[in-house]
Write a structure and sequence with these properties.
Helix content is about 20%, strand content about 30%. It is an alpha+beta fold. Helix 5 links the parallel strand 32 and strand 33. The chain starts with a strand and ends in a 6-residue tail after the last helix.
Length: about 750
């Protein structure tokens, strides 16, 4: 029988070793897995986290390993590339930091064994990801196991797959279950015992045969029906030698049907089931990717609380345990590989291997409906023939491996809707940030109407949208201020535009949680992307969290926004309440300010602000409280101060009616003199680019900066940024502007009148 041994404890780690040791070093750090060497420096900003080869070593006696014919090492996550050495001999390497892979150690084992795993997250030109807005944490950050099996066993060598493939097909009120197993060293005398059990453990179908591919029938099948009823069956197959069980494998599965209609959206088991949800990065504050089951469980509970029924698991394969939780909770999943941002001419084989691993390892999960081929991959242009061919290869590969699910891509906002690669997958989804990265919130819905009108037969979704918020506050929020109030306004507007268009097959907020992005220097807390509905430590649910809960959750509640915004200068202040109840009444120090109804679940009250006021929102039997306080001077603790910024917005002189660094670039460009200033800025940056050898002519309507193609569409989006905000983001593409340069630019702009 198969013997699985946890192998997480008793490792030794070195960041400084130069090569594989021949004996267990006495001076290495003692660690247990999961572990990442970037748990701190990958989240503190500066884009300077350690990237290189680090070593893990463990000494183990053969007597402490399974006493079986074959002994495998199973590694569930080593980022990004790794090599395994047993007693000094290299026996396997692997490229791809987010999937399971295994190593047959048997022939290299001795009485006492030194196992060394060299893990490397160095930049290179062939393993994805290499350019993306998140930290590539190095480490053995998931479980490591030892698996003991007999010489004849269910396959452990094919791309980390489980050795069993279950394909259910619903036929009327019944289901036909095709179960296929893959066997190493199969003998003519071997037979297979197939068993299907229901959620209570009762056998509903069984068969013993010598065939590795069998169909079993379930009469009166119980459907997996999303969050309403995520019913799971279990298929088990035993490898038999006479009556002796040599090995066994099992997989849970669900029976369901689905389709995506380009006009009416997503359907589950024949019923309309609008997909409204979030995206998720897996990392945690202070842990990086080295997270535990309880962290996955907390994430699932928060996602369920907000009312989401779908998750885009970005931008890589997530832990098997999390997919298991999604199966159990009835969430509809988009799973993808990290083919992201920058197409690598030498990376094709890595996209193929990572996609093969993703599908092979996750085929049996009832929750997975969509395979994502790439994300924002056209940063360098959408018509690269190699990029297009790569997508066709991946699309064909997925359809060959899995005929039951659909393929999709997440398209960068500035990619034109006529791009040929958009026509490759079954479904398309766009990442749009109108209202945060340029433009304004009103542009989102009309963009989708335009796409849908031109391509009515292509299902279109919204794979990313969001804006950043930290603990900054004001009563007149604006784009780019990083306030909790602007984020709440942004999501109110997006909810109303997106959820009212049934043809949008899915919406995924970017992001459910703040996450590590060490290159970022925004919002006053460097090293993080703060677009989450929940903070990085999962301790605080931002007001926007409750905007979605009001629309998506059936659990009654009422939420008073602005709990962290206490001190207010205005005599009458706006207070927002979110609730999924039909009516809300607001009390100020016990006095009713009236009742309101709101079909959009957003209730707005004008509240007199004098002294200290306790606010109480009441919706039926539910209530929530907060406090506001009248102050004469704005509390500067609520004011965004960029950490390490050369200038902050409030340090910039802004004469009335004149341009400044705080003026959106699009407005600056409306004036002739403003254009001249922008040309001078462009020349200054081009000189810097030339000096750093980071730019090159593209010859196709733009030029590239660190792999990002500067196109007319991108320039249009940038038009919504102020020059100051753009300067604070330049570190992400290795550019910088000094304080003196900014003040000189501002001085020139102050002389120019705004154009009405």
């Amino acid at each position: 029988m198969r013997n699985i041994l946890g192998f997480n404890s008793g490792w030794f780690f070195s960041k400084d070793a130069a090569n594989v040791p021949s004996a267990l070093p006495a001076d290495w750090e003692s660690v247990n897995l999961p572990h990442s060497w970037n748990a701190t420096d990958g989240q503190d900003g500066g884009n300077d986290y350690h990237r290189g080869t680090c070593y893990y070593a463990k000494q183990v006696s053969r007597a402490d390993l399974p006493q079986t014919d074959r002994v495998y090492l199973e590694i569930k996550g080593a980022n990004s590339s790794a090599e395994v050495y047993v007693n000094g001999s290299k026996i396997k390497s692997h490229d791809g930091g987010y999937s399971t892979w295994r190593v047959d150690m048997t022939d290299n084992l001795k009485d006492t064994n030194l196992i060394v795993i060299a893990v490397d997250n160095s930049p290179n030109d062939r393993v994805y990801p290499q350019m993306a807005d998140f930290t590539f944490y190095g480490g053995l950050y998931r479980d490591v196991n030892v698996i003991g099996v007999s010489s004849s066993h269910f396959d452990l060598d094919y791309y980390g797959a489980p050795g069993i493939k279950v394909t259910p097909e619903v036929k009327g009120s019944d289901a036909e279950i095709d179960i296929k197993v893959f066997v190493t060293n199969k003998k003519d005398s071997h037979t297979f015992r197939y068993t299907v059990t229901d959620a209570d453990g009762n056998v509903v179908a069984s068969k013993t045969t010598d065939d590795t591919d069998e169909d079993l029938d379930i009469k009166g099948v119980h459907l997996w029906n999303g969050k309403k009823d995520p019913y799971l069956y279990t298929a088990t197959v035993e490898l038999l030698e006479g009556d002796t069980v040599l090995d066994n494998v099992s997989a849970r599965f669900g029976c369901r049907t689905f389709k995506v209609d380009p006009e009416k959206g997503f359907f589950l088991n024949g019923e309309s089931y609008p997909l409204r949800g979030v995206s998720r990065h897996q990392d945690r504050l202070g842990l990086g990717n080295a997270i535990l089951p309880e962290h996955h469980e907390e994430d699932i509970e928060l996602i369920l609380e907000v009312g989401a029924n779908t998750i885009r698991l970005a931008h890589y394969q997530h832990d098997q345990y999390f997919y298991d939780l999604c199966d159990e909770k009835g969430l509809v999943i988009w799973a993808e590989i990290p083919y992201i941002s920058k197409h690598l001419p030498d990376g094709r084989e890595n996209t193929i291997s990572q996609m093969t691993e993703l599908v092979a390892q996750n085929y049996n999960h009832a929750s997975i409906f969509f395979w994502g081929l790439s994300n924002e991959i056209t940063m360098g242009g959408a018509e690269d023939p190699d990029l297009i061919e790569n997508h066709k290869i991946l699309n064909d590969l997925v359809h060959k491996m899995d005929k039951t699910r659909l393929t999709t891509i997440a398209v960068v906002s500035m990619c034109g809707i006529d791009a040929s690669y958009i026509k490759i997958p079954d479904l398309v989804s766009y990442n749009h940030y109108f209202g945060w990265y340029g433009g304004d919130t009103t542009m989102n819905g009309p963009w989708f109407d335009k796409f849908h009108a031109k391509y009515p037969d292509i299902p279109i979704g919204m794979s990313e949208y969001g804006c950043e918020a930290l603990n900054w506050h004001n009563s007149n929020p604006s784009q780019g201020d990083y306030s909790e109030e602007y984020q709440a306004f942004y999501h109110e507007e997006l909810i109303k535009q997106l959820f009212s268009r049934p043809y949008i097959w899915a919406t995924h907020v970017w992001n459910m949680f703040d996450f590590g992005a060490d290159a970022r220097a925004e919002g006053g807390e460097n090293g993080q992307n703060h677009k989450g509905l929940v903070t990085f430590d999962r301790k605080y649910k931002k007001d926007s969290f409750y905007a979605y809960k009001a629309w998506l959750s059936d659990k009654p509640f009422v939420h008073l926004c602005g709990k962290r915004y206490i001190d207010r200068v205005e005599d009458t202040t706006k207070v927002t309440v979110y609730s999924n109840q039909p009516e809300v009444e607001l009390f100020a120090n016990g006095k009713s300010l009236g009742k309101k109804t709101a079909a959009d679940h957003f209730f707005y009250f004008d509240v007199p602000n004098a002294g200290e006021t306790t606010l109480t929102a009441v919706a039926g039997e539910y209530k929530d409280e907060s406090v506001i306080r009248k102050v004469d001077k704005f509390n500067e603790d609520y004011l965004l101060r960029e950490k390490g910024a050369v200038l902050n917005w409030f340090d910039v002189t802004e004469p009335e009616g004149r341009l400044s660094l705080n003026t959106p670039i699009g407005e600056v460009m409306k004036t002739f003199k403003g254009k001249l200033v922008m040309v001078s800025v462009g020349i200054m940056l081009m000189k810097q680019l030339k000096a750093k050898s980071k730019s090159k002519e593209s010859g196709s309507g733009g030029f590239s900066v660190s792999g990002f193609k500067i196109t007319p569409d991108l320039m249009k989006m940038i038009g919504g940024f102020s020059l100051l905000r753009a300067s604070n983001m330049m570190g992400m593409i290795n550019l910088s502007v000094t304080k003196e340069q900014l003040l000189d630019i501002n001085k020139k702009l102050n002389k120019i009148k705004k154009k009405n």
